[in-house]
Specification:
By secondary structure, this protein is of the alpha+beta class. The protein has helices at residues 2-6, 28-42, 91-101, 119-128, 136-141, 153-158, 190-205, 223-235, 268-272, 282-290, 300-306, 339-347, 356-360, 367-379, and strands at residues 10-14, 43-44, 49-54, 59-64, 73-74, 77-82, 85-88, 145-146, 150-151, 167-172, 179-185, 206-211, 214-219, 245-249, 253-259, 316-319, 323-329, 383-386, 393-396, 403-405. It folds into four domains: 2-89, Schlafen, AAA domain (Methyltransferase, Cobalt-precorrin-4 Transmethylase, Domain 2); 107-158, no CATH class; 167-330, Heat Shock Protein 90; 339-396, Arc Repressor Mutant, subunit A.
């Protein structure tokens, strides 16, 4: 009951055995009184529940609703469901239950440090929103400051300097053992961390294709999808866990993983359907919304999918109890390729050539078919060869012309 009341609710059926066979209770009315007395004596505070006796099969269903006065304790301990078992919550989860029961969130708690500056936030608001004066009244309006509690944790996240986690970013080569570049962006305004992530993304995936006098901007991964993914990683993560969000950049994809699963009250199906309306950090989300970094009503998943509308590759979303990972693949235009051709094409990078032996280990068909597919892709101009003989390798043709890194004016000047 503690687990049900603390989270999504649930029901317990009395009068069945371990094999889920109905055996009935001797006296349904007496059983209801006994259950009620035990609940009232052992669970604190009293949960919202209902007893539903069934005189036909002599069973009693105990329906427990999600409570508002969390945490609900059984013998001074709080519990949660884990698959088919019930386990005690850890200290971090217990603090979250206390905050939820008090209608509070981590970002609204008073920050331990009160010595902050907000030049980054002020500059962003002036250039994006057009405010003329950035002062304490502005911070009050944004719910970052109050006369009673001073700066809250949301303010600390937006301050120029803080002691909070951020992004751990790495660019990998042909395997995870080959790290081409690694950066950690933390201890600063989340707006600067956002820009750091965008800058590294553009270095790795955005180029100009120069043909004659024409320059064409090329994004191997849609910038709108990447920006949405990292903005959501900042806005929807759990900040009471001292862990960095992770951005892993591979030749064929980017993975953005943020601490914390889905907020209470949102199922994985609702999240994937773009129906997220519960915001874990509404104060921070409001600032990002005012700056135009996110949409207002949790449309992130759909916006990421829309960014791949013209690509044959699609993003993926992995949800676990403690993390959410967004996987953004390199885009592949609709070139009239077969499914097997698209598969091989998607395995090739324009910067890290692969041998036919490496590719064979990544597909479920034989060498002769792979050779035919590679030959067809070469004739279509979508694959190029590197080397010869036993050293022959293949690479994708997305950026085989002259490549020049793009630059972009940052959100915050300087």
């Amino acid at each position: 009951m503690s687990a049900f009341a603390n989270y999504e609710g649930g029901s317990i059926l009395f009068g069945v055995d371990d094999a889920a066979r109905v055996v009935g209770l001797g006296n349904v009315r007496a059983a209801c009184l006994d259950i009620e007395n035990k609940v009232n004596d052992s669970i604190s505070p009293r949960p919202d529940y209902e007893l539903l006796p069934n005189t036909k099969d002599s069973t009693v269903e105990l329906v427990v609703r999600p409570g508002r006065s969390k945490p609900y304790l059984y013998r001074a301990k709080a519990y949660r469901r884990s698959d088919s078992s019930t386990v005690e919550v850890d200290p971090i989860e217990f603090r979250r239950l206390v905050l939820e029961g008090s209608n509070l969130s981590y970002e609204r708690l008073s920050s331990r440090s009160q010595q902050f500056t907000f030049e980054t936030l002020g500059s962003a608001l002036k250039s994006t929103v057009g405010i003329k004066n950035f002062d304490t009244d502005t911070l009050r309006t944004l719910e970052l400051y109050s006369d009673e509690d001073g700066y809250n944790n949301a303010a600390a996240l937006l301050a120029d300097k803080n002691d909070l986690p951020g992004f751990d970013m790495a660019q990998f080569g042909e395997s995870i053992s080959v790290i081409l570049r690694r950066e950690t962006s933390a201890g600063k305004s989340v707006l600067l961390e956002y820009e750091d992530a965008v800058r590294m993304y553009r270095d790795c995936y955005c180029y100009e294709r120069i043909s004659g006098f024409e320059r064409t901007q090329v994004e191997r991964i849609p910038s709108e999808a990447f920006r949405e993914a990292i903005a959501n990683a900042l806005v929807h993560r759990t900040w009471d866990v001292p862990a960095h969000a992770r951005i892993a950049m591979y030749p064929d994809r980017v993975e953005v993983s943020s601490p914390g699963g889905l907020p209470t009250g949102i199922s994985e199906e609702e999240y994937l359907a773009g129906m997220v309306s519960i915001r874990r950090n509404p104060v921070l989300a409001n600032v990002f919304y005012r700056l135009g970094l996110i949409e207002a009503f949790g449309t992130g998943v759909q916006r990421i999918r829309d960014a791949y509308a013209s690509s044959k590759t699609t993003p993926r979303f992995l949800v676990t109890e403690n993390t959410i990972t967004v996987i953004l693949p390199v885009t592949v235009a609709d070139l009239g390729l077969t499914d097997d051709q698209r598969l091989v094409y998607g395995l090739l990078s324009p910067t890290v050539p692969r041998s036919s032996g490496e590719l064979l280990g990544m597909v479920d068909f034989g060498r002769s078919k792979l050779s035919r597919i590679l030959k067809d892709l070469i004739e279509l101009g979508q694959v190029f060869t590197v080397g010869a003989g036993r050293g022959l390798k293949y690479k994708g043709a997305i950026e085989t012309v002259l490549l020049v890194s793009l630059s972009r004016k940052p959100l915050v000047d300087g």
